[in-house]
């Protein structure tokens, strides 16, 4: 079957994944209001294209955190990617490398971070704050030593949100899939009715981060530091004061606080508040090149794409991820030109409107 949009990959992934693993990937927290709102908010945004522009030499390349990338996007951190395909993180990282976009290695990756970074490309490392600060900072050191180019510190998970699908399924990691970056107990594999074993595991391993945690990471590394999970303007400003080089505006894909505002709805005001010296990225609900264009027009340096990359991984391994990234690249080139823009910087000057019909 020829896949012509990301929805095609979603259907293909759902067809091949066991139901409880599909729920782990697709689901959100609570009633999944924020999960649904991420898409609704993006669909309500419409562009005002410009006409009669010179599109000679158009390019989708952009600088993100000081390095050129092929597109204004990175592959979002997603836990336990060997759930979706035996090649897991290695396949996804290889495809990102070949596509010329950063790949963010998750603390909860199912392959050690060093092996993922070794495939090359532009690896970044996503950090969850662990109960033992020394272990947290050791992960930062390992990421540096492995050649990662940035630390993406997720700050919106003091503990895992109540993901009802996983609870109903009594979801637990299967044999052969584990948190490969640190020694952990058996909690994530212990199946109990009405309990998410993954949530139980993170409750045992994670600690709520605070601004002192951010200061400790900032003091530990000279790599660019990005705080992921910021929605409030006040937190964005404080992130800059704390030495953050970037912010990811995100409600964690609707998987943490159910009812948290979609990132796209506050992106513009956050970007305006930290317009000097701090890059702003958007995470949550990106499903097309058109969504990337909307995010850029509203102030994002780049976007993170998570679930669609996992759809490609589940459907066809590295080839599937490559196809997803190629499709996003083709769509973004198309909409960039149709909007009258020859570059990402030109797209930042586009106007948008929010429609009641979206």
From TrEMBL:
InterPro entries: Aldolase_TIM, Alpha-hydoxy_acid_DH_FMN, FMN-dep_DH, FMN_HAD, FMN_hydac_DH_AS. Keywords: Flavoprotein, FMN, Oxidoreductase. It holds the Pfam family FMN_dh. Its EC number is 1.-.-.-. Its cofactor is FMN. GO terms for molecular function: oxidoreductase activity. It comes from the Bacteria. Residues 1-357 form the FMN hydroxy acid dehydrogenase domain. Belongs to the FMN-dependent alpha-hydroxy acid dehydrogenase family. This is Alpha-hydroxy acid oxidase. The lineage of its organism: Bacteria, Bacillati, Actinomycetota, Actinomycetes, Pseudonocardiales.
